Fold this sequence. Notes:
Elements (H helix, E strand, L loop, with lengths): L2 E3 H19 L1 H21 L9 H6 L1 E7 L2 H12 L4 E7 L10 E7 L3 H6 L3 E7 L9 H12 L6 H13 L1 E3 H14 L7 E2 H10 L1 H7 L8 E4 L4 H10 L21 E6 L4 E6 L5 E6 L4 E6 L5 H21 L3 H12 L4 H6 L5 E5 L4 H8 L3 E3 H6 L3 E5 L7 H10 L18 H8 L6 H20 L2 E3 L15
Parallel strand pairs: 2-5, 7-10, 14-16
Antiparallel strand pairs: 1-6, 2-8, 3-4, 4-5, 9-12, 10-11, 13-15
GO molecular function, one term: dioxygenase activity
Pfam families: HGLS
Cofactor: Fe(2+)
Amino acid sequence: MAFQELWQLRAAFALSLSEMYGKEVPAYNTLVDVSTKVNEEFMAKEGAEAERLGSIERVTAERHGAIRVGSPTEMAQVARVFAAFGMYPVGFYDLRDASKSSVPVVSTAFRPVDADELAKNPFRVFTSMLAADDPRFFDEDLQARLQDFITQRTLFPQELLALADKAAEQGGLDDAEAAHLLELATAAFKLSDDPVDHAWYRELENISAVAADIGGVSSTHINHLTPRVLDIDELYRQMEELGIKMIDEVQGPPAWEGPDILLRQTSFRALSEERIFKFENGTVGPGTLRVRFGEVEQRGIALTPAGRILYDQMLAETDRRLAESGGIRTDVAREVWRERLPNTERGLAEQGLAFFTYHLAEGAQAAAAEQAAGAETSVWDLVDAGHVVAEPIVYEDFLPRSAAGIFQSNLTGEGSRDDAQAGTDYDITVMEQIVGRPVHDPNELYAAQQQASLDALSEALKATVTADAHNPALSASATSN
């Protein structure tokens, strides 16, 4: 019987969830179709340059999902499920203060961490946990009732958890067990048809629509599946032409003539979905909820810690100018980008603002070795000579402000929050304790990938290939998040 490795299970899992979600939210299928069309058009226009940040095969197949759980126990269990697909926690995101709306969650993302695994299938799931112990959102009485409600439900059956543990330990499963794992894991994220307690849901919704979606129902579900597109502005335009209502703007960096950095996201607005409710008078009948939406993303170059500091400064400057003189956010941001950000990949690399990998150009080893001649050599001297190619590292992670912006754009209301109370402390260390395993720092992953490419060059050329003195980020590991 054939053995399916973790990446094969991951690819099948992404496809299975996509098929299920397409049936639950048909507009998602439209989003995928338009994304594919836009990508094909972009390829036809830009040629090979369109694949600068990933092959068209990878980009077309790429998805990220989003789910929400209610407690540390549920978060630890979902970590076991995702480990069966070679997906591990990366990064810590605190959305509680990233939006003016009430979004009482902390999050991590489960994804592959090795470059080869990402190339095979980059499926990632942004996973949020309700901060049910934060008194800014929930008083003592509501905290107790929330904990009781969440404790009584089972999101992930023991059979699924046991099979997931086996897959993680073995590095895969045989065909029969793989099929069963996929069946159980997909079912765990299917929208439930259990009646929703109307009064309980609305009580939580007054605090936060996100809290109601997590703690007001008996199960978890896919909140959105996100295709990747090469031109998000064109996708936005085409979706609007089809009559699909999009959120007000694209979240994240603005469109500009320089390199794409980090992550740009947008979505169509949450749609009304019919659900069965148990009403206060004891009757059971249909009603509607608006919590699920269709998101799409355009990924750019991963920034170094220095680049992220500059990015935060540019966001702050954009906010300052908007507060002083108004205008359209994206237009103002574009002006700031032009003033402060290098408009070429080379500029980003030389200033230590972005991560790149470096490899020998085809047929260039002999010439590169002659140039290096066993001495310490700058990688950029080799790039300038045409012997080495610099390739940007794709940003594989998320932005708290953008994620909160997507959430906020699709909420039914802003909810409520008592800022006179002190919030509960959460950070990456607390998240590690919750999931029971290390939470990878994304910057360390990018820095290690970059350094490995420099080490490989040094070995191939029998020389020491180093970064330019004015570009320490190429040779130093980054540790900030």
